[in-house]
Write a structure and sequence with these properties.
The chain is an alpha/beta fold and 356 residues long. It has helices at residues 3-16, 23-33, 49-63, 79-87, 103-110, 182-195, 197-209, 218-226, 237-245, 278-288, 291-299, 330-347; strands spanning 40-45, 66-71, 96-99, 114-115, 137-149, 174-177, 213-215, 232-236, 250-253, 263-272.
Length: 356
């Protein structure tokens, strides 16, 4: 509505009704007709808010594009946002999905939720971490590790393999996040692909039979070790780094360096098909996939591993190429996620709420 036409309408209205009866309506009319709202982009992210929000704020200041972010919580990490994106598929509210892992992103590609985009910022990211069709791109990575309490376990006695956790000496003395959400759910699916269905399920059953303590999320798994409730647990490197940097008596082992390797978890960035702000979505993707953001994630408390060479990082953050990591087909992992989750749901009861 042009300003002159708007003023004429307001004048005629005010002649008929006392303006003091509806000052809020007049103001709302002006705001609703304003064309100066400015550019914005909507991102859904399961990357912990304490790390992702400062990065998104920097993007806002640098480019003058307002970021509307929707975050997920630890206990239902990723799953809630994926379900929301699927539900909104025919009328998307989101432009960019910044996921803390990869399996859910691949699932969204398969369901037609994502659009291809080859970001120029990602040209030097290894092909292993990029979808060949351009539907998603990996960025900084974490690893799924064994955390241990240094006051309760000697370094030489720490399990070197995930399969050691099924041994009698660890009965009831280790914890794991509920395997229907987050990276633990993805890890269960990875085992189904790498080991084969039968061997993977035998191993998962052996964890249950050996008294694994099931908790709400990787942060809680870490806290059980920090508090001495269990001496060891499965969790991710970011959770361990936070505890170590705060002086907690914990350390970690990258498991299966002489076996199948450690599970590496790249974050992923993807463009949502039909999002309301596609051009700004691509701009945000370029920023999230930049070397600067990888460096920031390496130096934050999470200590994430850059996927590119020659990105600055602290000494305690290893080069992922120095580790033996599980080489797995990401598409295959996404295909078995649902079947793997059904199997795990039949084995493990959902834990009661616990603190993060």
């Amino acid at each position: 509505m042009r300003f002159g036409v708007l003023m004429e309408f307001v004048w005629k209205t005010c002649r008929r009704f006392p303006v003091f009866l509806f000052p809020g309506a007049i103001l709302a009319l002006f705001w609703g007709c304003s064309d100066s709202a400015g550019p914005e982009v909507v991102v859904y992210t399961s990357v912990d808010q304490v790390y992702s929000e400062p990065i998104l704020k920097t993007f806002e200041k640098k480019y003058g594009i307002r970021v509307r972010a929707v975050y997920d919580v630890e206990a239902s990490k990723t799953t809630g946002l994926i379900n929301r994106l699927i539900a909104e598929r025919n009328a998307p509210h989101c432009d960019v999905f910044w996921n803390s892992e990869f399996a859910g992103t691949v699932l969204l590609k398969n369901k037609g939720v994502l659009a291809p985009y080859f970001s120029p910022a990602a040209r030097d990211i290894p092909a292993r971490f990029r979808d060949s069709d351009g539907y998603w791109t990996g960025c900084s990575a974490r690893a799924h590790v064994i955390i241990y309490n240094t006051s309760l376990v000697k370094k030489d006695d720490v399990p070197e393999s995930i399969f050691d956790l099924a041994a009698p000496e660890w009965r009831g003395r280790f914890a794991m996040a509920y395997p229907l959400f987050g990276t633990t759910a993805t890890f269960m699916a990875v085992l189904h692909v790498v080991l084969g269905m039968e061997q993977a399920r035998d191993f998962i059953v052996s964890l249950r039979d050996n008294g694994v303590v099931i908790v709400n999320g990787n942060a809680v798994s870490r806290d059980y070790v920090v508090d001495g409730k269990v001496p060891v647990a499965l969790t991710d490197t970011d959770d361990v780094n936070v505890a170590r940097l705060s002086g907690r008596p914990v350390d970690m082992v990258y498991p299966d360096q002489h076996g199948i390797g450690t599970f590496l978890i790249p974050s992923t960035v993807a463009l949502v098909r039909g999002g309301p702000n596609e051009a700004y979505g691509k701009k945000l993707m370029d920023y999230l996939l930049s070397r600067d953001v990888e460096e920031r994630l390496a130096f934050c408390e999470a200590g994430q591993m850059p996927l590119r060479h020659h990105v600055k990082k602290p000494d305690y953050v290893p080069d992922y190429t120095s580790l033996k990591t599980i080489d797995v087909d990401y598409s295959r992992v996404a295909q078995v996620m649902q079947e793997s989750a059904r199997f795990c749901q039949g084995l493990f009861s959902k834990p009661p709420y616990d603190r993060e």
